[in-house]
Design goal:
Helices cover 29% and strands 25% of the residues. It has 190 residues and is α+β, with helices and mostly antiparallel strands. Helix 2 packs antiparallel against helix 4.
Length: 190
């Protein structure tokens, strides 16, 4: 997980006391870095060639009455299946990105409150250029979708709730890795 500020933390209570006086997000000093909860690592490897598309796990029928424990287990399985599919989608872009000369893709993500977003930040090409927009040479690559899938592979859902989270990812097509950025200056784009 990226930098996190959430209910139950002393900083959250402090944030709730000053929220009306803040022009934007709380100070970065209130956030704590937490390792991605689904991947349980800050560097997630993906295969160079994706293999067969993962199939989703079949959930129990909605009409079946489930215990709270069964609901939690079902939710965890759904998250793991969705994360596996997201990782497969990133892997499936490896050949296309390499053919276009893309070495790495940079992006950010955030969540909490009432929704989540992923943000494309830039591409590092094999020749060392860093570009922030998609041109003719990278037209076949959807950077926003790629960043969204990378974040989902690391975290699973990171949308709504009594928390704020901010993160950044680097997708490296040479090393076949997704890295959750720990540098607070990079995450908060300062």
């Amino acid at each position: 997980m990226p930098y996190y500020l959430g209910a139950g933390e002393p900083e959250w209570d402090e944030y709730m006391e000053i929220i009306d006086d803040l022009p934007g997000d709380p100070p970065t000093t209130m956030f704590k870095y937490v390792e991605p909860w689904l991947a349980k690592t800050t560097v997630l490897h993906f295969p160079e060639t994706p293999g067969p598309r993962p199939e989703g796990k079949n959930a129990e029928p909605a009409s079946q009455q489930l215990s709270p424990e069964q609901l939690i287990e079902r939710w965890q399985k759904e998250q793991e299946a969705a994360s596996e599919l997201a990782l497969w989608k990133v892997s499936s872009m490896t050949a296309k990105c390499r053919a276009a000369g893309v070495k790495r893709v940079f992006g950010g993500y955030d969540g909490g409150g009432d929704e989540s977003f992923s943000h494309f930040r830039g591409i590092e090409m094999n020749d060392g250029r860093v570009i922030s927009t998609f041109g003719e040479e990278t037209a076949a690559i959807n950077g926003y979708e790629l960043v969204g899938n990378a974040a989902f592979a690391l975290l699973g859902r990171h949308d709504a709730g009594e928390f704020l989270l901010r993160g950044a990812v680097v997708i490296d097509f040479d090393a076949c890795t997704i890295t959750d950025e720990k540098d607070i200056d990079v995450v908060f784009d300062r």
